[in-house]
Amino acid sequence: MGLQQRNHPPPLLRSRPTYLLPSIVSLSIFSLAALLLYKVDNVILRTKTLAGHNLDPTPWHVFPPKVFDEEARRSIAYKAFQCSYLTCPSTYSLAEQRQQQAFFESSSQVKQCPEVFRWIHHDLEPWTKTRITTTHIAESKNFAAFRVVIVGGRLFVDLYYDCVQSRAMFTIWGLLQLLKKYPGMVPDVDMMFDCMDKPILNRTEHGSLPLPLFRYCTTGDHFDIPFPDWSFWGWPETNLRPWNEEFRDIKQGSRAQSWIQKWPQAYWKGNPDVFSPIRQELLNCNHSTHWGAQIMRQNWMEEAKSGYEQSKLSNQCKHRYKIYAEGYAWSVSLKYILSCGSVTLIISPKYEDFFSRGLFPKKNYWPVSSTDLCPSIKFAVDWGNANPSEAKLLGKRGQNFMESLSMDRIYDYMFHLISEYSKLLDFKPSPPSSAQEVCSDSLLCLADPKSKQFLERSTSSASPTPPCKLQNADGNLFRNWMQQKKKAINDVETMKAQKQPAG
Ligand SMILES: *[C@@H]1O[C@H](CO)[C@@H](O)[C@H](O)[C@H]1NC(C)=O
Ligand SMILES: *[C@@H]1O[C@H](CO)[C@@H](O)[C@H](O)[C@H]1NC(C)=O
C-alpha cells in the first residue's frame, strides 16, 4: 500500500503529461490551422480573376470599378479561386498535335489569306531588326492590363489591371478557342495586352525603344499592334452575339427590302455620349430632308430593359446609307454597319482596327469628311440616289468584305499575327510565377450566367482545314495602297467641291 502510495505522483504532476500536453498540442494545431485558414482565406479573397476580382481599373483610362455583391463576396471568391486553380484538364497530347500538323501539311486546301493580312508585316516591322527582348516585354508591362504567355499549347495569364465590362474574359476566350482550333500549331509566345480603347505608344515619343503592345486598334502614328476585339466572340453587355451569328442575321435582315425599297437616306444609331466630338456633331445632321440623314440615340439601359428588341442589328438595314462614326476611339460597330450591304459612309477615321485597313474608299465604302460633316453626308446621299447601281455595288462590296472575314479567317489572322510575332522573340517564353493557367473550363466556371451563354456559343473545335497562307512582306505595297486611298478620298472631295458653288 505504502509502496503504491509513494509511487503515485502527486495529482498535479500526473495531470501535466496526460492532459496538459495534448491540450497545448491541439491548441497550437488549432491556432495553426486557423492561421492557415485565415491566410488561405486572405489569399482567396485577394485572388485576381479574369472576371475582374481584386483588380483596379487601368490608371490610364479610369472607369467605375466593378461591384461584386458584398454578401456573396466570400462564396464568389472561393468559386473564383476554385475556377482559377482547380479545373484545367491536360491539353491535346503531343501525338494528337503531331497528327493534326501532319494532316495539315498533306492538305491541298491551302488558300491564300485575304489581302488585309499583309498588315501583320507592317505592324511587326519595328522589331524585325532589333527583335523583341525581355527588356521590351518588361517595358511594355507599364502600359499593359494583362500578359498572355502560351507555352506548349497551354495559356497563362498574368493580370495587372481590370478591363471594362467583359473584355478581358472574351479576349482570352478567343485565344483559348484558337488553341483548340489549331492544336499544337500556335507557337510559344509572350504578349502584353491593353484592353482600353486608345492606342498609347506614340511613334515619335517611343521611337528610341518601340514597345510591342497588343490592343484593339491603332493609328499610323502608333506602335500599338491591333488584335481582333472581344466582340467577335460576343458582347453580353450589349447583347451582341458571336460574329458569325450576327453577320448571318444582318445579311438575312438586309434582304428584307430591295435596294429601291430601302430609305434613300443615311442612318446612324448609337451612343453619342462617349467623349466623341464627331458623334456630337453628327446630332446636328439629324434632318431627313435637309441633310438626308436620320440620327438616332441608342440608350443601352432602356434597351436592356426592353430585351434589346429595338437594337437588333438585323432590323437596321432599312436605309441605303449607313453612317460609321468613331466613338472614344475606334468602334466595334463598323463590322455590323458594313454587313448591311448599304453604302457605308465612313467619317474620316483617326483609328484603324485590324481589318478596317483593308477597306478602300469608293470601292467598298464612301468617305465622308469630318470638317464639313452634314454637307458631306448630304453629298454622299445625293450621289448615291443619282447613281443607284453604283451605290448598290459599293454596298454589296462592303458586305462581301465582311463576309470574307468569317470566324475562320479571324482565327487565321490571330494565328499568323502570333506566329510572326513569336518569330521575333529572342528569348524562350515561360510564364511568370504570378501567372495563372486558364483553359476553356476554368474560364466558363468564372463567367456569370449570361456571359457563359455567349461564350459557349462561340466555342471552336479542331479545324478540318489548315490556316490560310500568309503572303510575304512587301513594303512598296503599303505605300501604293496609302497613295491610292488618298487619291480616292481627294476625288470625292473634288466632286463635292464642283457640285457646290465656291463660297
Ligand atoms: C506624338 O508625340 C508628338 C511629340 O510629343 C506629338 O507632337 C504628336 O502629336 C503625338 N502624336 C499623337 C498621334 O498623339
Ligand atoms: C432625330 O430626328 C428624329 C425625327 O425628327 C427624332 O425622332 C429623333 O429623336 C432625333 N434624334 C436625336 C438624337 O435627337
UniProtKB/TrEMBL annotation:
Top-rank taxon: Eukaryota
Transmembrane segments: 20-38
Family: Belongs to the glycosyltransferase 90 family.
InterPro entries: CAP10, O-Glucosyltr/Glycosyltrsf_90
Protein name, entry field: Glycosyl transferase CAP10 domain-containing protein
Keywords associated with the record: Membrane, Transferase, Transmembrane, Transmembrane helix
Segments forming domain Glycosyl transferase CAP10: 185-428
GO molecular function: transferase activity
Coiled coil: none
Organism in which the protein naturally occurs: Acer yangbiense
